[in-house]
User: Which sequence fits this backbone?
């Protein structure tokens, strides 16, 4: 499977590696701010996970505090909450966006001291409704996947994700939009919280030069294994073995330190052309929306007054079997897909006491599939993905789909 097409865009070539080594040799170990266009000056930190930990600490929450978090999310967020001796309170999601449900939060707000709102797949949470429901309790916006997404129209004045809540956290990890290795950043408009954040991060360890050198080499090798041709030949199988053999508690460890300097430099460099990357993502997503033979309710459309960065392209199915059949058939055509966070409910129940009160999140986790949509896809690859998807869908499901009179109504009735 040398030609297997990965879903994620792991971009870290020899030029990036040499630039990173050069930056490492020249720098004076003084990381400045990371300037995100239309957001502002952000405080750099080791990773998105470390950014969440720092944000929770800066809010002054006491040990044992309860933090609302969507059940359907990367379990690393649960770990970040646990790392500061707080407890997650799981909130259901909105089916249309895969983001935290303001309605479900309203029924649980009395149980929590703060909220983490995750802008899933580049889609946007209804932050203004969440602010009403939160009743003054702080909201951390997790923008790991929503860099560049924004609210538009005269009502919202172009507010960017990460600027509406109390604190916004960003991630530049490989596979994300910027794909620089690791790296994260934090933004807040509140000067007191900003000062506390800077003090918290200033007290974190500075990575040693040896650690940074090893990080550069590992990032390059991991990127090769996550990219063609090595992804199909070895990378995918290595990842499967890792997931099967490594325990949950050992995965995605949270390392609290200042940002790796090479990651800082590469982040600043890639942010210069970020608008162009978003434009290509959106163009690819629009191509799929126009050409996939799917009911509108199976796709994730932009909500009114929003602009999504289209970090990912999710497709909703009605069953695990339907989703897995499509995924297996695409894999045979050398097209990889992702079933994101499909075990989030099980992990939450086993490790954090989740009691099964988020039915939409559980349904979505078992029936959603992510397609390749990243900016480096070429036109003929978009055409190939679309053709293969449509051939499988039409051959296996269209007749049954029509018999069941698939509608937006029953899609939403999960």
Assistant:
């Amino acid at each position: 499977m040398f030609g297997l097409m990965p879903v994620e865009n792991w971009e870290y070539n020899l030029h990036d590696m040499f630039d990173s080594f050069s930056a490492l040799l020249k720098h004076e170990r003084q990381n400045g701010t990371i300037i995100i266009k239309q957001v502002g000056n952000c405080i750099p930190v080791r990773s998105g996970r470390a950014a969440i930990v720092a944000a929770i600490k800066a809010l002054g929450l006491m040990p044992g505090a309860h933090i609302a978090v969507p059940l359907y999310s990367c379990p690393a967020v649960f770990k970040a909450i646990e790392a500061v001796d707080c407890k997650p309170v799981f909130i259901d999601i909105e089916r249309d966006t895969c983001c935290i449900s303001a309605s479900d939060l309203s029924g649980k707000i009395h149980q929590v001291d703060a909220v983490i709102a995750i802008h899933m797949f580049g889609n946007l949470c209804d932050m203004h409704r969440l602010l009403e429901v939160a009743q003054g309790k702080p909201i951390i916006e997790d923008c790991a996947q929503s860099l560049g997404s924004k609210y538009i129209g005269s009502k919202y004045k172009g507010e960017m994700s990460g600027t509406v809540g109390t604190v916004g956290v960003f991630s530049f990890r490989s596979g994300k939009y910027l794909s620089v290795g690791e790296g994260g950043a934090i933004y807040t408009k509140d000067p007191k919280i900003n000062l506390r954040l800077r003090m918290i991060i200033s007290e974190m360890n500075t990575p040693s030069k040896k650690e940074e050198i090893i990080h550069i080499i590992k990032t390059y090798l991991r990127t090769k294994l996550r990219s063609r041709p090595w992804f199909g030949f070895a990378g995918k199988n290595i990842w499967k073995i890792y997931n099967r053999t490594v325990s949950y508690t050992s995965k995605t460890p949270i390392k609290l330190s200042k940002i790796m300097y090479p990651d800082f430099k590469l982040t600043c460099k890639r942010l210069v052309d970020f608008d162009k990357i978003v434009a290509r993502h959106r163009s690819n997503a629009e191509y799929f929306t126009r050409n996939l033979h799917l009911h509108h309710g199976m796709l994730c459309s932009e909500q009114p007054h929003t602009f999504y960065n289209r970090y990912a392209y999710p497709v909703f199915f009605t069953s695990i079997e339907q989703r897995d059949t499509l995924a297996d058939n695409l894999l045979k055509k050398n097209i990889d897909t992702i079933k994101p966070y499909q075990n989030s409910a099980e992990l939450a129940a086993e490790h954090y006491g989740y009691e099964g009160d988020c039915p939409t999140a559980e349904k979505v986790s078992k029936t959603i599939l992510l397609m390749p949509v990243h900016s480096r896809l070429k036109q003929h690859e978009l055409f190939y993905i679309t053709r293969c998807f449509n051939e499988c869908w039409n051959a296996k499901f269209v007749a049954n789909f029509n018999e069941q009179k698939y509608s937006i109504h029953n899609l939403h009735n999960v």
